[in-house]
């Protein structure tokens, strides 16, 4: 079972008043990594494709997609993917970023979005917006850790959300 003890924490990173939860210890342990991927995989959910969010969502999403026997797509920071892309702005706990998604293969699909942390919900809201615009039949989220004091879950009230750990 993944617990808070499996994370390293760094206060005031990347900016003052942010407590950073580092997944490196989980990645360093094959058994903990497997546990994390299993915990991020919803049981009985209708999933046609997994979307991994730049950057740490990319680590878990391919394994979850393979376990489910489905494909994967990527949500990247702007300027990292070529082609016709959907774009959305994400306001996060300590800044903002522009995200992009290739809409090919999303229409009519049930999408599972994988990311490491749910905090303010800004990134996830932007991802949901792009997937909806691309024609996804449904969108659900799975996070390794959720920061309960921040409004992420409220922001995603319209979507199923699974969090492995809540702090």
Major beta-sheet overview: 7 strands, mixed
What is the overall shape?
A: globular
- The tally of strands reads 9
CATH architecture heading? 3-Layer(aba) Sandwich
* Gyration radius, in Å: 15 Å
Percent of residues in helices = 25-40%
Overall average residue pLDDT: 94
Regarding CATH, which class? Alpha Beta
CATH topology description = Rossmann fold
Low-pLDDT stretches are none
Kindly name the structural category: alpha/beta
Number of helices in the DSSP assignment: 5
Spatial order of strands in the largest sheet: 5-6-4-3-7-8-9
Structural overview:
With 167 residues, the chain is of the alpha/beta class. It has one domain (44-166): Rossmann fold (3-Layer(aba) Sandwich). The protein has 5 helices and 9 strands, in the order E-E-H-H-E-H-E-E-E-E-H-E-H-E. The two termini are 15 Å apart.
Condensed summary:
The chain has about 170 residues and is of the alpha/beta class. The chain has helices at about 25-30, 30-40, 55-70, 120-135, 150-155; strands at about 10, 20, 50-55, 70-75, 85-90, 95-100, 110-120, 140-145, 160-165. It has 5 helices and 9 strands, in the order E-E-H-H-E-H-E-E-E-E-H-E-H-E.
